[in-house]
Structure formats: structure tokens, C-alpha cells
Amino acid sequence: MNFHDDLQFSHKVGRALNKSAENLDRSTRDKLQAARQRALGHQKTAVAGLSLAGFGQFADEILLPQARTLAALSTLVLGIVGTYYWNHFQQALDNAEIDSALLADDLPINAYLDRGFSAWLEHHSQ
Q: Residues with Cβ < 8 Å from 6, sequence gap 6 or more?
């Protein structure tokens, strides 16, 4: 069977069900209509849960309720990473100034005589 045959068969079944439903009493038809509406509601829920290969359900059940927490954690992580890189950038600028001063020989003689300066040079040269 192909799609066209399936479609024709479903129309035939639908017509037969509609014709036989006319013979039912009013309360039975109302119950069937209510059951059909519930089934359609469940079908829509099931289809929504399957959207995007399961990501839709994951987003609805896990991500959305925790959206504030995730946003706060993301902001915190970005702040920590940004601060880390900013501090290293500032330290690199400070080191570049000291290196430039050493190369230009603009440092006063007391800088070379300071023991802490010598220890700093030995530590950073390694």
C-alpha cells in the first residue's frame, strides 16, 4: 500500500464510522465526543514532547524551571573568566612596562640594588 491508498482507506473508515454513529443515542455520542477530545489533547501533548528529538520535553521540564538559576550561574562563570583574563592582561602590561624600562635603562640605580627586585627578576626569568 502506498500513501494514496492509505488516505483513501482512512476516508472510507471515517465515513463508515460517521454513518454508524448516527444510529447511536445522544448520551453515547456525547461520551464518544468527549473521549475523542481527550485523545486529541493527549496526542498534542505527546507530539509536543517529541519535538526536536526530545529537546522540547527536556527544555520544558528541566531548563525552563531552572532558567533563573542557569542565568545567574552563567553570569557568574562569565564574570570569573573575564576577571581572570583581565588580571592576566593587566599583569602582562605591567611586565611589559618593567621590561621596557629595563631595556631602555630608565630605572634608577636603586632598583638594581633592591634585593626584592633581584629576587623578582630571578623568579620571572625562570
A: none
Q: Are residues 7 and 29 in the same domain?
A: yes
Residue with the three cell numbers 491508498: 5
Q: What is the pTM of this model?
A: 0.34
Contacts 24+ apart (CB under 8 A), 3-9: none
Q: Give how far Cα 51 sits from Cα of 44, 56, 67, Å.
A: 11, 5, 20
User: CA 61 to CA 55: how far, in whole Å?
Assistant: 10
Asked whether residue 20 falls in the same domain as residue 49, the answer is yes
Half-sphere exposure of 42 (CA within 13 A, CB side): 6
pLDDT of residue 84: 94
99 occurs within a structural domain: yes
Give me the number of domains the chain comprises: 2
Pair 72, 113 in one domain: yes
pLDDT value of residue 126: 63
pLDDT digit string, tens, across residues 51-76 = 566 666 677 777 777 788 888 899 99
